[in-house]
Design a protein that fits this description.
The chain contains 8 helices and 11 strands. With about 250 residues, it is α+β, with helices and mostly antiparallel strands. Strands 2, 3, 4, 5, 8, 10 and 11 form a 7-stranded mixed sheet that branches.
Length: about 250
Amino acid sequence: MKKEIKILKYIYIIIIIYLIFYSIELYEKAKDSIKTRTLEKDGFMVFHNDVYNNTIDKPCPEMEKNILDVLPDGYMFIDYVYKINNVALSTFHRDVTSSQNIYNTKHKVYTCILYKYEGDLLSVCPNSHNTYPFVLSRILNIEGESGTVFLFDSNLLHAGQDNLCKDRNVIQYKLCHVDDIDLLSHLQNVNIIKNEKCTVTYTGYILRKLSYFFEFYINYIFYPFMIKKESSDTFIGKIQSIIPINYYNN
């Protein structure tokens, strides 16, 4: 009996150390990320140019060229524009609506996000695209200037930073290889604008942390709940009501 108690004590200590270690978030400036981060190693790249702010719907020519130049031949921007104003999707997720694993695409699928404001931008877990469906890296918060663009693997675990209700102007795009466009037809002809009222709550902070520690269940086991929003009076809709999916493609 004493032996079992001792083993349990060690297990508790290990769990506490794990929680403390992975609860400590790291920070980095976008200008440093531009120099060091790569799609292969980290799952994301960062670009910056003031001219990117000229983008309204479709990427401006300079932005489109810079993005496509780093990808293999055959990649294209999907006819997909998703604008988010004021509020951040601060819970951690993988882009299940464009996941290579879920849709069995031949090539990787990428998400591109333009930030047209200065400050706290994106949180990522570097290399989590290579450890799918698990995450072994800590949270990295990236701060940058207006005109900063992130290009990342759709399987990368990420979240918008909590902007504490400051003005926020974000445009999201999707890129895929021409060979896979038919598999991602549900993303074609999408043009959505999200304007939500922002509130700062302690509950939101807790959900953010839980979404990181339980990302495997959210993004791998329960991902069907994340793809399409059902009516709130259905069984699935009631389950979805406790999941923060307002900013998914639904």
